[in-house]
Amino acid sequence: MRKLIPLLTVIAIVGVLAADVAGSTAATKAPKITCTFKNFSQTPQQLSGFGFGYIRCPQPFGRGVQSATYSETVNATTGAATLKGTFTNWFGVGTVYGTYDLRGQYTSATAATYRGTFTIRGGTGAYKGSKATGPLTCSTTDAGATSSCTSVQDTGH
User: Fold this and answer.
1) Can you tell me the distance from the alpha carbon of 26 to that of 87, in angstroms, rounded to the nearest whole number?
2) Is beta strand 80-91 parallel, antiparallel or unpaired with respect to 63-74?
3) Is the pLDDT reported for residue 14 higher than 70?
4) Would you say 103 and 73 are in contact if contact means Cβ atoms under 8 Å apart?
5) Of the chain's two ends, which shows fewer C-beta atoms within 10 Å, N or C?
6) Long-range contact list for 107-111, CB < 8 A, 24+ apart?
7) What pLDDT score was predicted for residue 60?
8) Which CATH architecture describes the domain 7-154?
9) Which is more confident, 15 or 37?
């Protein structure tokens, strides 16, 4: 089985941005921000490495790019997998950075889905001091050479 490298990298970005920008009151329900990521592994045949990708979020974040590292384990018998790493997401007015931790399952030699969390540990520019945690889901159909991810984050603090 091949590995899913860049899935997790993409996930972390959404939570950080949403948490920093929001300013809702306790009396109103905070809206959610959903971001999508497309990641390209630069080391697709390795169980650890790095990738780059594109991010799409609604305003005020908009589009950005991401770099991420990963470390994956895959049980060749059961198809169970773990994926962990760090990420940095660049937007027009700042960056966010953090970690992700995913658990997944290969359903074939090349297809897998992952679920887990991302944690934004900080940022620069407009996102300086950002902190957030949220859910992250990713999938690949080419053993991690490319992956697609979605992150959803409450904008409330």
Assistant:
1) 31
2) antiparallel
3) no
4) no
5) C
6) 107/79, 109/1, 109/2, 109/143, 110/2, 110/140, 110/141, 110/142, 110/143, 111/139, 111/140, 111/141
7) 75
8) Beta Barrel (2.40)
9) 37
**Cβ(107)–Cβ(73) under 8 Å?**
no
Please provide the size of the chain in residues. 157
* pLDDT tens digits along 113-157: 999 999 999 999 999 998 888 999 999 999 999 999 999 876 654
The answer to whether 154 and 28 are in contact (CB under 8 A) is: no
Using pLDDT thresholds of 50, 70 and 90, give the confidence band for residue 50.
Answer: very high
| Six token digits for residue 68 | 């991420």
Alpha carbon distance 49, 69 (integer Å): 6
Q: What is the pLDDT, as a whole number, of residue 5?
A: 39
Structure token digits, residue 60: 């005020």
Residue 66 — very low, low, confident or very high, per pLDDT cuts 50/70/90?
very high
Instruction: Determine the Cα angle at 32 with ends 53 and 101, to 5°.
Output: 50
Which amino acid, 80? A
Task: Give bridge partners of residue 84 from the DSSP assignment.
Answer: 71, 101
Q: Of 128, 110, 112, which is closest to residue 120 (Cα–Cα)?
A: 128
